[in-house]
Amino acid sequence: MEKNVLVIEDDKDLAVLIGIHLKDMGCKGEFAYDGSAGLTKALEQPFDLIILDLMLPKLDGFEVCKRIRTENKTVPILILTSKAEELDKILGLELGANDYITKPFSIRELMARVKANLRAVDAVKQESLEKSLDAELNFGDLVINFEKRRVIIGAYPVDLTAKEFDLLAYFVRHPGRSFTREQLLNEVWGYQFSGYDHTVNSHINRLRSKIERNPAEPKFIKTVWGVGYRFAEPEEIAE
Fold first, then answer.
1. Same structural domain for residues 20 and 125?
2. 239 residues of the chain, pLDDT tens digit each
């Protein structure tokens, strides 16, 4: 799944360079060139990571970081500072930044820090999801109870076969992640079914007929052309 990264940096040449490398990583970059515009963007839409320069016009990075943390406790913030003083780094971290890097830095080191922070966020999300698997998970009007192996769409129970439930359960444990048919066969049916791609297709079709209001335009189980299938992320379902 493409990650959205906000870069708040008044040096436009540096911002462009960072943007190029973010794109190479498969990330989408949004940009702001002063603190006030950066804060507005940060509060208007969700981001997976914010790269924040401390020395900014209109509103400095310390104040931007502080205000972001007032509204959003979880988005990772990686601060950029041209100062080497320990006090600036400590203050930035105390205001809620997750990491820092001091200018001048190599773009390779910055991208390594970006990857590390994105991995940490993914790990926390996955851990949170796994901890909730004994309870009911809600995806819009779709409810999955793992302990009772029960599925409800709207107010109505859905009659699934054991393998249909296993396939749905595997999907909802990894929202947004694309799987090939072979990967689904290996994980849900086992390696001995390798080569039986039609098994996945038929189960997907039956699942869609049971949980989708319009199987021709699925809301939950999406086709990823040239790859396979994925389960929609919560924000997609909420739209």
1. yes
2. 678 999 999 999 999 999 999 999 889 999 999 999 999 999 998 899 999 999 999 999 999 999 998 888 888 899 998 766 667 777 778 888 888 888 888 888 899 989 888 887 777 666 666 655 556 788 888 999 888 889 999 889 999 888 889 899 999 888 889 999 988 888 888 755 556 677 888 899 999 999 999 999 999 999 999 999 999 988 888 65
Same domain, 194 and 145: yes
CATH number for the domain including 192?
Answer: 1.10.10.10
Q: Are residues 124 and 210 in the same domain?
A: no
Here the tokens at position 57 are 């016009």
The helix, strand and coil proportions of the chain, stated in percent and rounded to the nearest 5, come to 45, 20, 30
Tell me if the pTM is above 0.70. Answer: no
Please give the order of strands across the beta sheet that includes 178-180: 178-180, 228-231, 221-224
